[in-house]
Specification:
Length: 425
């Protein structure tokens, strides 16, 4: 059902965390008893508020009584206000300024692009360390204002905001460690490099679903732009179409984790080939697509890489090939081993005093073999008894008495013997 519109933060808080809906429970992390102390509070009893408040999809449009927010939310550290109807940054500021210990704030899917965030309002966010603005259509001007007023911001989420470009902030944000900016339309690498300029301490950059094109940057420049980058996610970067783009990732001096699923460049390879070729090209990574790269897997991948490219023309062989040949030497091609079951064998057929070497199919039945032998031994199939002798078996011949049994089930091998005898009347 649709939530009613025009509801205040405090109204929703009182409804959701009333004693009837959220009974007081003892024990760590189970809830916090906060007395209803403000004069004129509508709460006649008490609220049992946890330190993590989830008030998403509640139709909130405004803050409500600020004194009551301050009284009930003094201990709150995380607040989820996603998918509400907050469109005025002043109302958000009224809420946040009265939650003094707030570290995590989720404002996703609120129509906040309808108002301008002034610096004095943004100042109320000063203690926030993790801020989520997904699908808020927050402008870069709004983001810049936030960055200037949040000195301790460590994680910023800007997904689904229809960004096609990045606007550089006049001030670098030295504190930011994680930027989640997926599902936008940042195609040109010149836009991505601006993120490196704005966030020099960035540890994790999540760029999935951005249709990123080729990485047009020198190795030295990449190292200067992202000196602390440890993890990058480039899932579904539709424009990455050559191995040189992958090789450029080696320019990030601290890179250890890479995610590269859904890349057009890799679609023509098998799953095994993709992983091994990527591991061999990225010698410093310890985790690929979420899976740890063990030492044994790295060596196998690097050896696979050498054999993969050894027959390529010299002009098509990547530089990494020569580095690995220096490491392992020139390898011999792997022997091709056919593991398919044998389809036919050569056996000796003994009948009376005659011995004849024959090739027989193993997919046929005993009855079919009898038909095949009928012209050789001059006996009808109904008058024929067959015995199989495994050359290594210690127990003597085994009668092949079941007409529908397949020959391969006997384990017949080259050099074994089959004895044919007439049925005694």
């Amino acid at each position: 059902m649709d939530q009613p519109s025009g509801r205040s933060f405090m109204q929703v808080l009182c409804e959701k965390y009333s004693p009837e809906n959220f009974p007081y429970r003892r024990g760590p992390g189970m809830g916090v008893h906060v007395p209803a102390t403000p004069q004129g509070s509508p709460m006649k009893d008490r609220l049992n508020l946890p330190s993590v408040l989830v008030l998403n999809s509640c139709g909130i449009t405004c803050a409500g009584d600020e004194n009551e927010i301050a009284a009930f939310c003094a201990h709150v550290s995380e607040l989820d206000l996603s998918d509400n109807k907050l469109e005025d940054w002043h109302e958000v500021s009224k809420i946040v300024s009265n939650v003094p210990h707030l570290e995590f704030l989720n404002l996703s899917s609120n129509p906040l692009s309808l108002s301008v965030l002034e610096r004095r309002c943004a100042g109320s966010f000063a203690g926030v360390r993790k801020l989520v603005l997904n699908n808020s259509k927050a402008s870069w001007e709004t983001v810049h204002t936030i960055l200037q007023e949040l000195p301790d911001l460590e994680e910023l989420f800007l997904c689904l905001n229809d960004y096609e470009t990045v606007s550089c902030s006049p001030v670098c944000c030295q504190s930011l460690k994680l930027l989640h900016i997926t599902d936008n339309n940042l195609q040109d690498w010149t836009e991505i490099r601006k993120l490196g300029i704005m966030f020099p301490s960035l540890d994790t950059l999540i760029l999935a679903n951005n249709n990123l094109t080729t990485i047009e940057e020198s190795e030295d420049s990449l190292a200067r732009l992202f000196p602390n980058l440890r993890s990058i996610n480039l899932h579904k970067s539709a424009g990455l179409h050559c191995w040189e783009d992958i090789d450029k990732l080696n320019s990030f001096p601290k890179l250890k984790e890479v995610k590269l699923l859904g890349i057009p460049l890799l679609q023509s390879y098998t799953t095994e080939e993709r992983r091994k070729l990527l591991i061999a090209r990225l010698p410093s990574i310890v985790k690929l697509n979420g899976s740890i790269v063990a030492d044994g897997e790295r060596e196998d991948s690097e050896r696979f890489f050498i054999r993969y490219y050894m027959e390529f023309p010299e002009e098509e062989v990547p530089f990494r090939y020569h580095e690995l040949v220096t490491k392992y030497g020139k390898l011999e091609p792997l022997a091709v081993v056919d593991l398919r079951p044998q389809s036919s064998v050569k056996v000796e057929v003994h009948f009376q005093d005659k011995v004849e070497e024959m090739s027989i199919r193993l997919d046929q039945t005993v009855a079919e073999l009898k038909k095949h032998l009928k012209t050789v031994v001059q006996l009808s199939t109904s008058n024929m008894l067959l015995f199989y002798l495994d050359q290594e078996a210690p127990f003597g011949p085994e009668e092949m008495k079941y007409s529908s049994r397949a020959l391969h089930s006997y384990g017949i091998r080259d050099g074994d013997k089959i004895y044919v005898e007439p049925r005694m009347k």
